[in-house]
Automatic annotation (TrEMBL):
SUPFAM superfamilies, per the entry: HIT-like
Recorded GO MF terms: hydrolase activity
Domain of life: Bacteria
Origin species: Atopomonas hussainii
Phylogenetic placement of the source organism: Bacteria, Pseudomonadati, Pseudomonadota, Gammaproteobacteria, Pseudomonadales
Protein name (database record): Diadenosine tetraphosphate (Ap4A) hydrolase
Hydrolase listed as a keyword: yes
Keyword entries, A-Z: Hydrolase
Residue ranges annotated for the HIT domain, each copy included: 35-103
């Protein structure tokens, strides 16, 4: 059974599910920062996924990034898998803008996170509702 790593649970808001991945929103309002977590148990590396799941992961990541780029007016999309701190396989999909707090440096460790206010979460969620229309199920009691 799929269980989200406790660090991701603490640092993120759960938005909903694609066919393969859980979509999270990093609780840092400085950046539209999303995380995809394949709902497969015991996976820490992309190559541990079956071929079809690997393809699905990259399709979901690419599709999400394309939609976020337009929706959040990105100058650049950052897509990364690291896993040094959280071993559960997850893919960061981060909207970067030239005016964001860390530009052009990576977002990691640059500034202390600024948690979302309730109204900001609702605004992000509404933008996602307008763009994630196919193959996505929103969680009603979360982000």
């Amino acid at each position: 059974m799929f269980e989200l790593d406790h660090r991701l649970e603490l640092d993120c808001l759960q938005v909903g599910d694609f066919p393969l991945c859980r979509l999270l929103l990093m609780n840092d309002a400085q950046y539209p920062w999303f995380i995809l977590v394949p709902r497969r148990e015991g996976i820490s590396e992309v190559f541990q996924l079956h071929d079809t799941d690997q393809q699905a992961l990259w399709q979901e990541a690419a599709s999400l990034a394309e939609k976020l780029k337009d929706t959040f007016s990105a100058d650049k999309m950052n897509i990364a898998t690291l896993g040094n701190m959280v071993p559960q396989l997850h893919v960061h999909v981060i909207v970067r803008r030239k005016e964001d707090a860390a530009w052009p440096a990576p977002v990691w460790g640059k500034h202390a996170p600024r948690p979302y206010q309730a109204a900001e979460i609702l605004a992000v969620r509404e933008k996602l509702r307008l763009t994630l229309t196919q193959d996505f199920v929103f969680f009603e009691d979360q982000a």
